[in-house]
Structure formats: structure tokens, C-alpha cells
């Protein structure tokens, strides 16, 4: 991200409509941000085991659902529940692999307190694919 903080993610979100018009949404999203130092590690891990919402417009996709966030501060761990929203932008050409780096934004809102954790940055390794496929 802009502050030079590293993060990793693993996402697979989808939305499908069958021939009768029934829409199903599914998938998962995981995010792990690394702060602190080796002597005093600080991390934030967000796990969304079941994507519940998904909207796509061109090369941009927003999806999310209920999630848990584990916060590590040194030797102390704390887990909170809430809702996460992933916003991803696919900016690379899938054929030539050229273009600007993809972008990922993560927003977690804690249940009860409404405290917010946000992270945004460019993808330096890997590739986000936002696409639509029609299957007969």
C-alpha cells in the first residue's frame, strides 16, 4: 500500500444465474496484512468463509459477507466479528499481461462497535481476474 505495508490475499467470488433466473452467490475471501517489526509483529487477518453479496461493473467487482478479523499485537491475539467488503479492479490485459497493476481494497466493519479497518494497495505478484462468462 502507500505506506509500504505488505499484505497477502486469496479470493474466489462468483455469482451465477440458472436458466430459471435463480441467482446464487458464493466463494470466499481471505486477507492478511503485516505490520510491526520482527521483534514485535503486528498482523491483521480477515476471513470471509462465505461470500454473500457480489456486484460487477466492467473490470471492477465488489463482494463480501460476514467475517472474522484476528488482530495480533506482539504475543497478544484478539478476534472480532463483523462484515468485510472487498473491492478489486482488474487492470491488466489477460492476454498480454500488460497494463497497470491490479488494485485491491479491503474494508472490515466490526460488529457492535462499528470500528473500521481499511487497507488498499496495488497487486505486485499475482493477477486478479474480473470477468463474465455465459454458459449454455
Short summary:
With 136 residues, the protein is an all-beta fold. Helices cover 0% and strands 60% of the residues.
Task: Explain the overall architecture.
The protein has 136 residues and is mainly β. The protein is 0% helix and 60% strand. The chain has no helices and 8 strands. Strands 1, 2, 3, 4, 5, 6, 7 and 8 form an 8-stranded antiparallel β-sheet that branches. A hairpin with a 5-residue loop joins strand 1 (6-17) and strand 2 (23-36). The model has no long low-confidence stretch (mean pLDDT 92).
Radius of gyration: 16 Å
Largest sheet entry: 8 strands, antiparallel
**How many DSSP-defined strands?**
8
Helix segment count?
Answer: 0
Given as residue ranges, the uncertain stretches (5+ residues, pLDDT < 50) are: none
How much strand? over 45%
What is the first-to-last residue Cα distance? Answer: 41 Å
Helix and strand composition category: mainly beta
Mean pLDDT: 92
What letter string, H or E per element, gives the SSE order? EEEEEEEE
Overall geometry comes to flat
What is the helix content?
Answer: under 10%
Topology summary:
Layout: E1 6-17, E2 23-36, E3 41-48, E4 53-57, E5 60-73, E6 76-89, E7 103-110, E8 116-122
Antiparallel strand pairs: 1-2, 2-3, 3-5, 4-5, 5-6, 6-7, 7-8
Amino acid at each position: 500500500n502507500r505506506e509500504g505495508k505488505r499484505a497477502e490475499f486469496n479470493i474466489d467470488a462468483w455469482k451465477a444465474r440458472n436458466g430459471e433466473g435463480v441467482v446464487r452467490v458464493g466463494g470466499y475471501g481471505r486477507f492478511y496484512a503485516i505490520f510491526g517489526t520482527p521483534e514485535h509483529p503486528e498482523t491483521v487477518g480477515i476471513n470471509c468463509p462465505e461470500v454473500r453479496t457480489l456486484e460487477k461493473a466492467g473490470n471492477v467487482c465488489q463482494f463480501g459477507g460476514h467475517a472474522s478479523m484476528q488482530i495480533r499485537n506482539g504475543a497478544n491475539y484478539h478476534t472480532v466479528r463483523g462484515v468485510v467488503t472487498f473491492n478489486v479492479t482488474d487492470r491488466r490485459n489477460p492476454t498480454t499481461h500488460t497494463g497497470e497493476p491490479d488494485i485491491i481494497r479491503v474494508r472490515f466493519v466490526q460488529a457492535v462497535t462499528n470500528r473500521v479497518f481499511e487497507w488498499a494497495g496495488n497487486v505486485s505478484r499475482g493477477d486478479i481476474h474480473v470477468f463474465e462468462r455465459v454458459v449454455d
